[in-house]
Amino acid sequence: xxxxxxxxxxxxxxxxxxxxxxxxxxxxxxxxxxxxxxxxxxxxxxxxxxxxxxxxxxxxxxxxxxxxxxxxxxxxxxxxxxxxxxxxxxxxxxxxxxxxxxxxxxxxxxxxxxxxxxxxxxxxxxxxxxxxxxxxxxxxxxxxxxxxxxxxxxxxxxxxxxxxxxxxxxxxxxxxxxxxxxxxxxxxxxxxxxxxxxxxxxxxxx
Length: 206
Prior knowledge:
The chain is an all-alpha fold.
């Protein structure tokens, strides 16, 4: 078969490759600009740049993820959740999935949608059952708000076990356990067993 038979197809492929490379360069330009703006906490401007990249390549989960971070930082939690949900739909990268689920759970917690938040956080824990002490504590806070004190305490103990050398994690977990103790047994129980000691820094759950 004459090689000229293939030339039209080769030309089309070359044109498509050139368009692809051009688009990739344009996406990179928008992403780099957006990342710089996000680092400067210029979240509104960063969102616009991420969205420009997304218009070129709607399956770019990195841009959806960073867009979600910007919206989260602006307190626009519902829109942030939508952006992170796109990440869950597009990618199978475990790190991005865990990050998106943690952000979704935190946003839902701040919106006082505690059961939804708990479900999201449990999904994150299923992906990575270790090294997620912060996720465990937030899940415990959800359970506390849902009045499931026994499960909340279990999550706290698990967080302490996994991060026993992290003083901030231990402090946060014990602060929540103290609140759980008050709900379960009242002040009398804690005064009897703790000698009226109130852990340092305990003011609220959030």
